[in-house]
């Protein structure tokens, strides 16, 4: 069975759109949640991102943040020693973002394949929209594309209509 | 190659992961004419126009309808039959059913129609059914073509009853609504049967094109009484069958026996593709190749004097151990399913709205908009999203927006019958 990321209805494996609410279930997939996270976290640098369920990252050298996918109550630990691409995986087009929001209903929420970049520079945590189709919003305000914006602990970041919250760790000011 | 119907099918997934649970697979069936059916003689048409001549039709609308009717007469031949019924508060036979021999006389009669009075559709439908049954045809295509711009009051159930009586005798109904005042529930109910459909004509300028297209489609019919029978393996279930090309329409499934379903698919033109989407529940199966469904398409080719032609196909699924299977969905199947889901979502939105559940109605429309956007229907998606907002703010959608969405999602808007465009997959 698959659980619809939008309305939590249980659907038979292979169902493409939820019979209850019509949301796409393609990204929901018939996989275990832990495996989804591990897959979503795969990227250029496997060590850079670890899943919340896999435990806290061991090395405390890099600037660490946690992204909470509010609707799914999932936490993704992210190491920002390098730029991190947020988007929606599309293997057929060769797009594999570091953080794949596809598994959290990103397709229906209007997350672009290459949606935004998270980074850490000179002591500041930054988010930059990559000219995504449906925009990136910080605390409800749409940010300009191609321009990095500072993030603070607890800020809400919306990609399309998918809501994320960022928690800064070790530097929670 | 002998004339007939070519049947192709695409599965949403070619390989299924072995599972202890049942799973869903979607089958897209696409049928088209093969073997030079265009060289078969044309089947004679037996057409009755039923025109609303209530006072709201005055001016541009009636002028366009008269123009369109005149052109239909021009395109009919000596073997075809034509009748014309008009109605307002009462109904009249302007042209009794007859062979199309004296075109100038028929056109002169069309020219005499003027607009006045109210709208009582059932009377017009009753006369039309009477006229269309007059000619004694050994073979041919009988159709009623109804055009209205207003609401009929108090005789809706009689309209539906008359439409059903005709459909049961193989007489299809094409109902065209013009403007925003007509009752789309009524026209949709009247045409919820094979060989029938309703269409929304937003502007009078489209009337001639719509009539001309309809006549072209009728002239192109080569297969009649197409019937699909589906037999499933033990545990398999056919959950739904919907037409998706050239336009979306749910198909009534009769469960003839355990795991055996049948559906009437009506008459088919030799132009374009007839597409159907089947939702099938596959029971838990071990790894291996398994037959899932047996399809039997049965049809008549009256122009070739061939009855009960049969095309059979067995759909097999390949089941592999879960770890060897990459979950992948066929793009074309997903495209048509996405459009079908958009249609279903908007239908559910109107049901919610009618029950006063505004929030749910708006959510359904929002999701329908997302589905349409993904299916490449940006402009329709925009209309849907506007109405989703409107319904949330004011509790109701606009008449125009609702008609646009109801018929737009089915591909029954304006001039073009949907589906002729690329699949976009």
Describe the structure.
The complex is a heterodimer of chains A (173) and B (425). By secondary structure, chain A is mainly beta. Chain A is 7% helix and 34% strand. Chain A has helices at residues 33-40, 106-109; strands at 2-3, 10-11, 49-51, 64-69, 74-79, 84-87, 99-100, 114-121, 124-129, 136-138, 141-142, 149-151, 156-159, 162-168. In chain A, the strands form three sheets. A seven-stranded antiparallel beta sheet of chain A has the order 3-5-4-14-13-10-11. Chain A has a five-stranded mixed beta sheet with strand order 7-6-8-9-12, with no helix packed on it. A two-stranded antiparallel ribbon of chain A has the order 1-2. The longest helix of chain A is centred in the N-terminal third of the chain and has 8 residues, at 33-40. Chain B has 425 residues and is of the alpha/beta class. Chain B folds into three domains: 4-33 and 222-324, Immunoglobulin-like; 45-221, 3-Layer(aba) Sandwich (Rossmann fold); 331-408. Chain B has ten helices and 17 strands. In chain B, strands 2-17-16-10-14-13 form a six-stranded mixed beta sheet. In chain B, strands 6-5-4-7-8-9 form a six-stranded mixed beta sheet, with helices on both faces. In chain B, strands 1-3-15-11-12 form a five-stranded antiparallel beta sheet, covered by helices on one side. In chain B, a hairpin with a 2-residue loop joins strand 13 (254-257) and strand 14 (260-269). In chain B, helix 1 (60-75) runs parallel beside helix 6, helix 7 packs antiparallel against helix 8 (358-374) and helix 8 (358-374) packs antiparallel against helix 9. Residues 419-425 of chain B have low confidence and may be disordered. Classes of the chains: A mainly beta (173), B alpha/beta (425). Chains A and B meet through loops of A and strand 3, helix 7 and helix 8 of B.
């Amino acid at each position: 069975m698959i659980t619809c990321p939008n309305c939590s209805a249980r659907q038979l494996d292979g169902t493409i759109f939820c019979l209850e609410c019509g949301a796409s279930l393609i990204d929901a997939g018939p996989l275990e949640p832990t495996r989804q996270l591990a897959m979503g976290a795969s990227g250029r640098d496997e060590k850079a991102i670890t899943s919340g369920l896999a435990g806290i990252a061991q090395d405390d050298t890099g600037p660490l943040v946690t992204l909470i996918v509010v609707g799914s109550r999932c936490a993704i630990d992210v190491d920002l020693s390098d730029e991190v691409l947020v988007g929606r995986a599309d293997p057929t087009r060769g797009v594999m973002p570091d953080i794949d929001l596809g598994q959290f209903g990103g397709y229906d929420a209007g997350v672009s394949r290459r949606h935004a970049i998270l980074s850490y520079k000179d002591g500041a945590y930054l988010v930059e929209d990559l000219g995504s189709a449906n925009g990136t919003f910080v605390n409800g305000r749409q940010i300009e594309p191609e321009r990095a914006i500072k993030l603070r602990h607890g800020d809400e970041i919306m990609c399309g209509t998918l809501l994320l919250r960022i928690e800064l760790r070790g530097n929670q000011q | 190659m002998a004339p007939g119907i070519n049947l192709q099918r695409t599965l949403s997934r070619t390989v299924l992961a072995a599972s202890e649970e049942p799973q869903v697979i979607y089958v897209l069936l696409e049928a088209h004419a093969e073997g030079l059916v265009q060289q078969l003689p044309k089947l004679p048409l037996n057409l009755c126009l039923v025109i609303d001549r209530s006072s709201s039709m005055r001016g541009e609308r009636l002028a366009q309808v008269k123009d369109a009717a005149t052109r239909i007469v021009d395109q009919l031949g000596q073997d075809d039959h034509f009748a014309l019924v008009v109605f307002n508060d009462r109904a009249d036979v302007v042209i009794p059913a007859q062979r199309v021999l004296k075109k100038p006389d028929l056109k002169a009669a069309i020219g005499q129609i003027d607009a006045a009075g109210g709208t009582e559709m059932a009377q017009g439908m009753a006369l039309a059914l009477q006229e269309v049954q007059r000619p004694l045809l050994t073979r041919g295509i009988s159709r009623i073509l109804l055009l209205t711009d207003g609401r009929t009051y108090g005789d809706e159930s009689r309209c539906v009853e008359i439409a059903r009586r005709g459909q049961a005798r193989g007489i299809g109904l094409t109902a065209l609504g013009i403007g925003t005042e007509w009752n789309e529930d009524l026209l949709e109910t009247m045409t919820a049967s094979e060989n029938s459909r309703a269409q929304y004509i937003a502007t009078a300028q489209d009337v001639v094109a719509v009539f001309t297209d309809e006549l072209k489609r009728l002239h192109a019919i080569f297969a009649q009484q197409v019937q699909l029978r589906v037999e499933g393996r033990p545990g398999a279930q056919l959950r739904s069958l919907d037409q998706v090309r050239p336009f979306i329409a749910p198909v009534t499934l009769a469960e003839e026996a355990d795991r055996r379903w049948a559906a009437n698919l009506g008459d088919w033109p030799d132009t374009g593709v007839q597409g159907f989407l089947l939702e099938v529940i596959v029971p838990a199966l071990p790894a291996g190749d398994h037959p899932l469904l047996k399809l039997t398409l049965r049809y008549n080719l009256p122009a070739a004097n061939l009855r009960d032609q049969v095309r059979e196909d067995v759909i097999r699924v390949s089941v592999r151990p879960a770890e060897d299977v990459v979950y992948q969905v066929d793009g074309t199947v997903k495209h048509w399913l996405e459009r079908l889901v958009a249609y279903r979502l908007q239908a559910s939105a109107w049901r919610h709205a009618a029950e006063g559940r505004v929030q749910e109605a708006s959510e359904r429309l929002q999701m329908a908009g997302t589905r349409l956007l993904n299916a490449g229907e940006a402009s329709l998606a925009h209309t849907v999203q506007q109405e989703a907002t409107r319904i949330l703010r004011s509790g109701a959608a606009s008449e125009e927006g609702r008609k646009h969405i109801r018929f737009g999602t089915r591909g029954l808007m304006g001039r073009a019958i949907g589906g002729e465009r690329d699949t976009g997959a």
